[in-house]
Amino acid sequence: MCSVILAIGVSTAWPLMMAANRDEMLGRPWVGPGRHWPEQPDVVGGLDTLGGGTWLGVNDAGVVAAVLNRAGSLGPAAGKRSRGELPLLALRHGSARAAAHAVAGLDAALWRGFNLVVADRAGAFFLRGVGEGRIVPHALLAGVHMVTALDPDDMTSARVARHLPRFRENPLPCPPDWAGWPAMLADGEGPLEAALCVPATNGFGTVTSTLLALGETVEFLATAEPPGAARFSPVTF
Predict the structure, then answer these.
(1) What residues make up the domain containing 58?
(2) 138-179 tens-digit pLDDT
(3) Average pLDDT of the chain?
């Protein structure tokens, strides 16, 4: 269960700020953010070596896309396409609105259940795919939101219930000062289901973390290991 935190329209200087932890099987190979796709040279993101896609990326137009598994849908399934292609499909477009509209026109049955977040400087969208039927898009209102394996800000998630209030109550970052966000991303305290940084258990855990902000420029930082175990390093464009 990955986590994405978004601050939308709450800072004039940085209209979009995003923090994300990727939770994955520890043996699944990946490569840190870069321009890994010759057919989409304007995209920078982490490469899932197995599926060929990404969990989070940004294009040169300033569109960000991140994909998360829905509850109970970890791992690949026979006859289903890799969910890592969904951010790449979104990042073919020059705005979050255009990306959300395009992805909403696809058949959700092609993939296992997913949550897709698409955002730019003008706003953000959440798209839900449940493995069948339509992909449903929702505009996210200005404010601080959290997405995990359920719908945005769903307080029935122990992780959201524990951490979303903290992100809302703590001072907002002003990159390059990310305030308390890196420390919160590294928080593995409490019950496992509430941990934001998931300790390695049974071959699964948090493997990397991202901080990304869109303003007049793009601020993109990532870790090569779980947050707390490795420093955030700037991603070169």
Answers:
(1) 3-234
(2) 999 999 999 999 999 999 999 999 999 999 999 999 999 999
(3) 94
3-state helix, strand, coil split of the chain in percent (to 5) is 15, 35, 50
Q: Burial of 7 by CB count in 10 Å (0-12 exposed, 13-18 middle, 19+ buried)? A: buried
Contact between residue 140 and residue 1 where contact means Cβ atoms under 8 Å apart = no
Q: Which residues pair with 144 in a beta bridge?
A: 7
**What's the chain's length in residues?**
237
Q: Quick one: which of 46, 19, 33 has its CA closest to 183? A: 19
Q: Total structural domains in the chain?
A: 1
187 phi/psi in degrees, rounded to 5: -75, 110
pLDDT at 142: 98
* Tokens linked to 169: 């109550």
What six digits make up the tokens of 167? 């992100």
**What is the Cα gyration radius of the chain?**
16
Determine the Cα–Cα distance for residues 208 and 56; give it in Å rounded to an integer. Answer: 11
CATH assignment at residue 67: 3.60.60.10
Using CA atoms, how far apart are residues 153 and 203, in angstroms rounded to an integer? Answer: 28
